[in-house]
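The methods section describes the discrete structure representation at length, but only in general terms. An entry of this sort, consisting of the sequence and the corresponding backbone structure tokens, reads as follows.
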Amino acid sequence: MSIDWDDAVIAPVMDVFGEAVTYRPKDGAPFEITGILTEAYLEVDAVGDAVPMSGQQSRLNVRLSAFMEIEPQPGDTLTVRRTGQTYWVREVRPDGHGGACLRLNGEG
């Protein structure tokens, strides 16, 4: 028996935990999607006598089916409606089940 992960798992999770995002592809018109924003602590290992550093790694988990005819690409931008914060997509990591983790960099 095959499981439709997008409908059975990802969609209900987005309904509960997702928030509104305006997605702007590099080549195309902006559109609305739902995503789960995570801003996790990130520690950078110091080499030698360098001072250890820490920061924040922003990620947005999305349903790929929300992108219809395009795929998310590095260089695209998005704005989280709740905060008004704009990010650009640094890396796209599909999960193999119909979702993807978009690794983000902030735009100030």
About this structure: The beta strands are 19-24, 31-44, 53-63, 77-80, 86-94, 99-106. The chain has a mean pLDDT of 91.
